[in-house]
Amino acid sequence: MDLKNINQIEEASTLTKKDLIRLGLAVIFMIFVSLYVGNITDQVAGHNLLIVAAVIGGYMALNIGANDVANNVGPAVGSNALTLTGAIIIAAIFEASGAIIAGGEVVSTIKDGIINPEQIKNTDTFIWLMMAALLAAALWLNIATALNAPVSTTHSIVGGILGSGIAAGGTSIVNWPVLVQIITSWVVSPILGGFFAALFLFLIKRKITYQPDMLTAANKFVPLLVSFMAWAFSTYLIMKGLKNIWKVDVITATTLGLAIAIATYFITKPLITHKSKALESTKASVNSLFTIPLICSAALLSFAHGANDVANAVGPLAAINDALVSHDVASKASIPLWVMFVGAVGISLGLALYGPKLIRTVGSEITELDKMRAFCIAMSAAITVIFASQLGLPISSTHTAVGAVFGVGFLREYLKHSNAKRMEEIRAHHEHDAPEKIAAFLNEFKKASIDKKGLMLKELKQQAKIEQEHSLLTKKERKSLKKVYRQELVKRSHLYKIAAAWLITVPLSALLAGILFFTIRGIMLP
Fold first, then answer.
1. Which of 239, 343, 387, 473 has the most beta carbons within 10 angstroms of its beta carbon?
2. If you average pLDDT over residues 181-202, what whole number do you get?
3. What are the domain boundaries of the chain?
4. What is the DSSP track for 460-517?
5. pTM score > 0.85 for this model?
6. What is the dihedral sign for C-alpha 395, 398, 403, 404?
7. 3-state SS of 381-437?
């Protein structure tokens, strides 16, 4: 056996050991949950059933951490604003903080009102329904993570409740208008996310990186961008992240956000000016100015995600606990501290153990990200939620963030293709000139401002009308020169895989939940 084969065996063995360690820690966490919950709920009727539900809730929390949190920190890691370890530490702290501080004391027992709880008269049936929904959603998230596909945890739990609800009460139990809204969000979320991210990136390119003196332009424009980010994120946090402890209307949230943005501008303006003095007028220097804003955005997104999406893990568990304690089915359920603790710790641990895989996918495998592109993705996530909330549209944070990554990638493709096409047209128009003259013109064109480039192209086209009559090339040959190979900067395999995973999330979770409901009912019935 040669040395190469021995090294491959050693690498495979190391990977297996790491996988076993991660699995072992996850199992230890779920054992801890069972012991912890068993100790503090021993007086509750249906004590053993609650322990099983808590373990499933812990399993769901692990999978949310493994899959969903990557969207918050992936772009920052992919752009090298944060190391993978640093991102996991920041996300774990802020996810847990958001869950415990702002996760809320009450949760809706039926996520997004997808089914009508009034049609479920039997408490036992309701508990089995919730257990099946929670387990089905967790299993699908586990599968999606193994397939390297970021999917919506909200859609997963909605699909689970839909499937187990139909299994328990038939199709009449479903709130179909709400389901239509959720289906609409499959399309709306990624499109809005991609649109806003591409818009911000185009704005940055036009105002900064396409300018002759990038650093001077950055000194003027970056403080405005950071201030706008402060407005977007403060408004987003007030409206969404803190909604469970402080309810305000959109006008109040926007006004407070504006005040924070103005303060941010006067703080960041001198800091950026001071830092710029030691930098050169290059794209790399401009990128470095976005490092701190990106770290802040990753932390704030994680806090808001912990406050909002912890309900996906603990909501059904809180509903089961409430049903066992009250012996009734309610539309709202209080969240005991122990339930929130299971969700917060589970999300953080799932991120640390299995999150790196999806963080790399979102941060670097779909398209190449620098700090400016990652900044646009973070901005898009906040702006999209604010915009969609005012339209009354249900938005998936996962679909929004991943859509923003694709939006940035496809804009880069378009701009690269457009620029390459211009270069080929310039060469075609100068086909009889000396190579030195062509190179000089191209160099001048690359350094020119947006307005000057437009003038140069206009003059070139006017000159081409005269030269075309005397050209040695045929019209067909001239046209073929303009056909530029379209460089793919977005991995199509990831696009197709993620889109397919999104499409099947609700129906597959529903199918799994229906099967599990009948299985659990069959076990529980005498």
1. 343
2. 88
3. 17-413+489-524, 414-481
4. HHHHHHHHGGG-SS-HHHHHHHT-------S-HHHHHHHHHHHHHHHHHHHHHHHHHH
5. no
6. positive
7. HHHHHHHHHHHCCCCCHHHHHHHHHHHHHHHHHHHHHHHHHHHHHHHHHCCCCCHHH
